[in-house]
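Standup, Tuesday
Yesterday: got the pipeline producing structure tokens again.
Today: sanity-check two examples.
Blockers: none.

Example 1:
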Amino acid sequence: MASSSSSSSNDSMRVLEQCRVSPSPATVTPQPASLPLTFFDITWVYTSPVERLFLYPFPHSTVVFTESYLPNLKSSLSLALHHFYPLAGKLRRSPDSADQYELHYEEGDSVSLTVAETDLDFLDLVGYHARDSNKLSSLVPRLPKLDDDNRPLLAIQVTLFPDHGIGIGFTVHHVACDGFNLTHFYKSWASSCKSRGHDSLVQPAPSFDRSVIVDPCDLYSEFLGDMNRFTADNNPVLVPAAVESAPSNLVHATFTLAPDRIEGLKTLVRSKAKSFNCSTFVVSCAYLWTCIIKTRGYKSAMKAHFTFVVDWRKRLQPPTPDAYFGNCLGCCFAEAKVCDLVRENGVIAAAEAIGRAIEGLKGRVSNDFAGDLSKYLAQLVAECPPLTVAGSPKFKVYDVDFGWGRPLKVEVPSIKEGGAMSLSDSRDVEGGLEIGIVLPEHEMEALVTQFVGGFELF
């Protein structure tokens, strides 16, 4: 159910409608009004939102879109929000508590939906070459600003490229849930939209039982204390400046690794290292890590860091349900000397560092999480800050079909904020990968040279 306001315009982007969409009440079922944050969630309270952008072919005019397609987009969004209702709520401090937070939803809460049109070059934006990152960022919304104790969790922007394409951009506060839940939401909305208004939740239904996350060591308090101390120093790393103030020369490029390249990397690494699972994730991340370290020219005596998150749903004892709604991610840290990464076969050292970090996870909350956040926060302000990863090929983002076919391109514009690379499945090649990177233009040119030149090794 939506409510609308007037239109506005600026430069290449013209806002046609600004409205709010509430969860459908048609089949209301009792749900908890508030979900307490767990220690998995609390680490994301101060971080910047995550952005995801889907770009589809759409050879229709603005009039056809607004009259024939937009009503269905709104009604199907309302149906999807019924199942993922916390996304329509807010992050707030729990009543009568100074250090407890919760996701709170009450009847009438809604999600901001912006409808716009643009004259940006659609074919340019769906390419793999270096593109102006600010143009991609203009296709995702800003989260509405309320106050520190009532923060919205989700905003959506639908942007029409008349007669060419359509973009659907999401901005989500990571404290609400992780990428597994968000992809579940995207696919459920798309499924309902494709079925023209039928409630088509992608099963299984999300589970909101927070009691499955046990915290025997009070990691919640430890992590909250770490975050409060870090932000008390007025450190800007966790909450970067607004997108509008980002450097104007940043470009966003997509690198691809085909299955044969990935197998070549595995063969190379296995020839020298056999003590860990040499997975697609390990060798692909190792290769990009070494390319970026070489591009940036860090001093050889420095230590380089690669930080990524691991899904803990199956690692916890007992395991949590696959459809558990909330964050269930733990950090994993890889470290190597720069001098080892920039050698001819530096990808082997990188893969060993990443692979052994994964092998070192013990499956016990106390052993695997205590001290992790303080370690990561220290790395953020190090001379050689960590490369991090957003997304996963397991999400299968190219399966999100609103009825217009598979996306032509899926991007994570928010990687420009935190020095991350995005990782997803390939649109066109089964078993391939797409890797998004944002860098200043001159560094991107150097990275392309490193990336392509490295193929000679495998």
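Example 2:
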Amino acid sequence: MPIYSYRGMDRSGKEIKNTVNVESIAAAKQKIKSMGIMLIDIREQKAQGTSGGSSLLQLRGSVNVEDLAMMTRQLATLIKAKIQIVEALAALVDQVDNATLRLVLADLRQKVNEGASLAKALQDHPKVFNSVYVNMVEAGEASGTLEIVLLRLADFTEAQVKLKNKIKGAMTYPVIMAVFGFAMMNVIFIFVIPKMAKIFTSTKRELPFITKVCIWISEFLQNYWWLMIAAIIGGAFLLNKYLNTNKGRAQWHSLQLKLPVLGMLIKMINVSRFCSTLGTLMNSGVPILTALNIVKNLIPNVHMKDAVEKARISVSEGASITNPLIQSGYFPALVTHMIRLGERSGELEPMLKIISENYEDQVESKISGLTSILEPIMMICLGVAVGFIVFAVVIPMMDLNKIS
């Protein structure tokens, strides 16, 4: 069923922009008219295929993870209620608020109605549905447990959103403090210090070293601010270019893992993602080799990604998954020990779930601890900067009082 986007005016003269999901343009016009809207413009929204077989949506916008998780749970509920996939997708088109997701669902409904599997239809929208999503749906369709797989997908997606939001929330306060402190220091050095410097230099007395440094910084910011901006932009460009090389990326990721507090947090997040994704995929019926290949592509750190690739090669040769993980040194001993026990007992999926849940709790605890550490550090840094300026100004003022 096509989607028509329209523009019109209601009875009060307010402009209305929305979409309707009906059989034809005539039905769309009739439905819009029945809502008391005077139609100005109407057109059909379509998904155009690219040469690579994927879809390029004409409608601008993106699908956030929260909308995707909600849609997945609703689809699972409808399928569990014995509603056909085509009808379930048609129902979701009218329910979702995100315009881009609505267009994607309409395209999925059309492809499934034409005989394609849901997994095959999902592959045409890689920017919305990643490899984990597609492979789990494919395994669910093959095993006849699509509604169960979709519920697991919803849980998995919501857990990822929860972790992402906690990291963002933990970093919000330090970032605000840093931006505010940087802006405040620039205002002081550019507008306040020059006026004080004129008073100090008019006395023709030798100024303290700390005051000279303060005045020098102020003059530099006033006269060479463009040089500082150019240096920041140039440095960021060169750093980004270096980090895009294999050597630069490897060195940067190695440094990340060695950082005092952040290194452990990054390692724990990657371990949690590895265990939760692998466990979810295997529990949904995805073969372990395919699952390991998917998980490898979801881990951002190149060193831990290389360890997972070696584990995949080890499994393909009939060996254990744990040996390459142990040799890498990036996976804690408790994690590899529990994975080994899971392999030997044939209960690898439940063991991976236990590990991921345990590490999610540890990550939350670490993030809270990191926030409690960053806040006093930011306050101390601001205090030191303000103290530097205060001493640079107060010492000459005391000399002026002595002269008076």
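Quick observation on example 2: Residues 47-60 have pLDDT under 50 and may be disordered. The radius of gyration is 29 Å.
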